């Protein structure tokens, strides 16, 4: 091989080797390139030894929720208290058991009606006699009307010794046993109407009551069925606060498709979601309440005091409704890492991000 051919071969080999090096460098740069301008910015800033190390935060739009958790309540139904409205009598028959389903008009209890039946018979005889006398001219229509009123009253007293189901449903409570004496207005039993919707009744402390309104989502966990979350909604809020516990009554509706597995009286825990919208969220410590601003890190790595408008507030985060854009990088804590306008900063560690409640990242943290 001639010297010229050898030089040409060496030149070609050198060019190919150079090309391969360029390709490897490009691939290495692509492999190590971060996803997102904020990480590239943080890396560039960290490389500058003159930069001040501060914690940074990436502003993103994510579900921002707030809730009232740890609520305890009781499952309630459309309950009807059945009472005896007659004179004191003894219970002689109970034709129903707790939990039994009944139909409208079904006889549930029977009281001793011996005296009531005798009074009705006596009133009936007097009414028949008054009508006979009217026909014979020995009585007036007023006499018949009085006799009729007396009979109607005696008949009602007799009918009251039978306790009927006013609506279809199930018996949730029986307060009297056969042989016991039942007085006027005594509650015999409690009936839960089958067409009535079951609700969870709970109390909200007055400081949180204003944030609860009808229609809000609620997560219910019945103690009798642990681990199963039922999604209901707030159907009623009483603004009247009790003087003892300083709480207001809140009713949470339970979906119809799960009511068949529940019954009144069961204990349950509840969490009411009071706020849930996509929003730009920042840490509470990132906001300068006096200046109503945050420190945004510009493209040159220097801080810029930026006025913002705050919306909903939780214990640890603020919603920003105006002043920031998604993807902005800000100083996450201006309380312990106060920096002046125009300060060159670098990220002290990986920039933080907001993780919505219920996400895997939030649960891990």
Short description:
The chain is α+β, with helices and mostly antiparallel strands.
Structural class: alpha+beta
> Which percent bin holds the helix content?
25-40%
- As a percent range, the share of strand residues is 35-45%
Span between N and C termini?
70 Å
Low-confidence stretches: 360-365
- Oligomer class: single chain
Radius of gyration: 40 Å
Shape: elongated
Strand order of the largest sheet: 3-12-15-14-13-16
* Strand segment tally: 23
Would you tell me the overall average pLDDT? Answer: 84
H/E topology pattern: HHEEEEEEEHHEEEEEHEEEHEEEEEEEEH
How is the main sheet built? 6 strands, antiparallel, barrel
Number of helices: 7
Protein topology:
Layout: H1 3-32, H2 37-46, E1 52-54, E2 56-58, E3 61-76, E4 79-83, E5 89-94, E6 101-102, E7 107-111, H3 114-136, H4 141-159, E8 162-164, E9 169-174, E10 181-182, E11 187-193, E12 199-205, H5 206-209, E13 217-222, E14 230-241, E15 247-253, H6 256-259, E16 267-283, E17 293-297, E18 303-307, E19 309-313, E20 317-322, E21 329-331, E22 345-347, E23 352-353, H7 360-364
Parallel strand pairs: 1-22, 2-23
Antiparallel strand pairs: 2-21, 3-12, 3-16, 4-11, 5-7, 5-10, 6-9, 7-8, 9-11, 12-15, 13-14, 13-16, 14-15, 16-20, 17-18, 19-20
């Amino acid at each position: 091989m001639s010297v010229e051919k050898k030089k040409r071969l060496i030149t070609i080999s050198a060019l190919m080797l150079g090309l391969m090096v360029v390709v490897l460098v490009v691939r290495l740069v692509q492999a190590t390139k971060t996803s997102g301008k904020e990480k590239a910015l943080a890396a560039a800033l960290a490389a500058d030894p003159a930069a001040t190390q501060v914690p940074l935060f990436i502003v993103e739009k994510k579900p921002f929720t707030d809730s009232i958790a740890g609520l305890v309540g009781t499952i309630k139904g459309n309950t009807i208290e059945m009472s005896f409205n007659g004179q004191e009598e003894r219970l002689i028959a109970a034709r129903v058991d707790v939990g039994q389903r009944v139909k409208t008009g079904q006889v549930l209890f029977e009281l001793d009606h011996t005296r009531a039946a005798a009074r009705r018979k006596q009133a009936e005889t007097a009414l028949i006699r008054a009508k006979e006398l009217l026909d014979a001219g020995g009585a007036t229509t007023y006499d018949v009307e009085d006799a009729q009123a007396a009979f109607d009253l005696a008949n009602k007293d007799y009918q009251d010794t039978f306790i009927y189901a006013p609506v279809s449903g199930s018996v949730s409570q029986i307060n009297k046993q056969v042989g016991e004496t039942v007085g006027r207005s005594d509650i015999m039993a409690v009936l839960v109407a089958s067409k009535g919707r079951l609700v969870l009744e709970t109390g909200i402390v007055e400081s949180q009551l204003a944030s609860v309104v009808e229609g809000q989502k609620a997560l219910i966990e019945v103690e009798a069925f642990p681990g199963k979350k039922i999604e209901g909604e707030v159907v009623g809020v009483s603004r009247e606060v009790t003087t003892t516990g300083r709480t207001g009554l809140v009713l949470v509706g339970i979906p119809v498709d799960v009511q068949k597995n529940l019954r009144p009286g069961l204990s349950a825990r509840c969490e009411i979601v009071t706020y849930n919208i996509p929003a730009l969220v920042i840490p509470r410590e990132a906001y300068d309440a006096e200046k109503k601003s945050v420190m945004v890190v510009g493209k040159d790595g220097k801080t810029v005091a930026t006025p913002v408008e705050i919306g909903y507030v939780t214990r640890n985060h603020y919603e920003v409704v105006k002043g920031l854009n998604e993807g902005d990088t800000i100083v996450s804590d201006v309380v312990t890492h106060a920096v002046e306008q125009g300060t060159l900063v670098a990220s002290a560690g990986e920039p933080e991000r907001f993780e919505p409640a219920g996400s895997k990242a939030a649960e891990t943290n």
